[in-house]
From TrEMBL:
Organism of origin: Micromonospora andamanensis
Taxonomic lineage from the root: Bacteria, Bacillati, Actinomycetota, Actinomycetes, Micromonosporales
Annotated protein name in UniProt: Uncharacterized protein
Top-rank taxon: Bacteria
Length: 214
C-alpha cells in the first residue's frame, strides 16, 4: 500500500514570527524560517505568556491597576515564575502610565490576514484599549529580554496599521515593551511606501527560504 503524500506546507507567518525574521541577518534568517516550518509541520508550539496576558487584560477591564498581575506570579506554574517575575514590574509601570484606571477600557480586537506579495501574515494584537477621550490603541506586547529593534517595530506597527479597519477601526497601533514598560508608536518621520517595499522584499525572501527548506 502506497503511503499517502502529505500536502506541501503553504508559506505562512504570524506577525511575531515575521518580525523576528526581519530582525535577523545572513544565514540566521534561513535557520529561523526552517525552524518555523518544522514547528508548523509538527503542529508544536506553546505560549508561556497566556496567563500573564489574561491577568493584564483583567487589570484593564476591572480598573484594578496591577492587582491581577501581582497575583498571577503566585498561581503560574513554578517553571514560569521567574519569567513572570521579570515581566510584572514593567507591565505594572505601563498600566500606571495609562492614567487613572477608570479612564481606560479594554477594547475587543480582531485578527486580520495581511498579504505581502504571496505571503500571508496573521495580524493579531493582544488586545485593544479605549480612553475616556475616545482614542483607541491596538496593543501588541513584546516580551523578549532584548528591546524591540527598529526593524521589528516598523514591521509590526506598519502591518497592523495597514489592517486597522479590520483589527480595531480608528485605533492607533502600539507595541509595548513589557519588561521596560515602554510604549512604542510609529515614528513621525516613517515613510510607509518605503517600509512597504522593504517588507515586500523580506516576504519574497521568506517564501524562497521556506520553499527551499521543503
Amino acid at each position: 500500500m502506497t503511503a499517502p503524500i502529505s500536502a506541501p506546507l503553504t508559506p505562512y507567518a504570524t506577525l511575531l514570527g515575521f518580525t523576528r525574521y526581519v530582525d535577523r541577518t545572513g544565514p540566521t534568517k534561513a535557520s529561523f524560517v526552517g525552524g518555523l516550518r518544522r514547528q508548523r509541520a509538527s503542529r508544536s508550539g506553546f505560549n508561556p505568556h497566556g496567563q500573564f496576558v489574561k491577568a493584564l487584560k483583567a487589570d484593564i477591564a476591572f480598573h484594578t491597576g496591577g492587582t491581577h498581575l501581582a497575583q498571577v506570579v503566585d498561581v503560574v506554574k513554578p517553571r514560569w515564575r521567574p519569567l513572570y517575575q521579570a515581566l510584572v514590574p514593567g507591565a505594572t509601570a505601563w498600566l500606571h502610565s495609562l492614567g487613572e484606571p477608570a479612564g481606560v477600557e479594554l477594547a475587543q480586537t480582531r485578527d486580520a490576514l495581511a498579504m505581502l506579495g504571496d505571503l500571508p501574515i496573521k495580524i493579531n494584537p493582544h488586545f485593544g484599549i479605549r480612553y475616556a477621550d475616545g482614542r483607541a490603541e491596538a496593543v501588541r506586547l513584546h516580551f523578549d529580554e532584548a528591546p524591540p529593534s527598529e526593524e521589528a517595530l516598523l514591521a509590526a506597527l506598519h502591518l497592523t496599521a495597514r489592517h486597522m479597519d479590520a483589527v480595531l477601526p480608528h485605533a492607533e497601533p502600539v507595541l509595548v515593551d513589557v519588561r521596560r514598560g515602554i510604549t512604542h508608536r510609529m515614528p513621525d518621520n516613517a515613510k510607509p511606501d518605503e517600509i512597504e517595499r522593504w517588507l515586500a522584499g523580506e516576504a519574497a525572501a521568506f517564501r524562497a527560504i521556506w520553499s527551499a527548506a521543503a
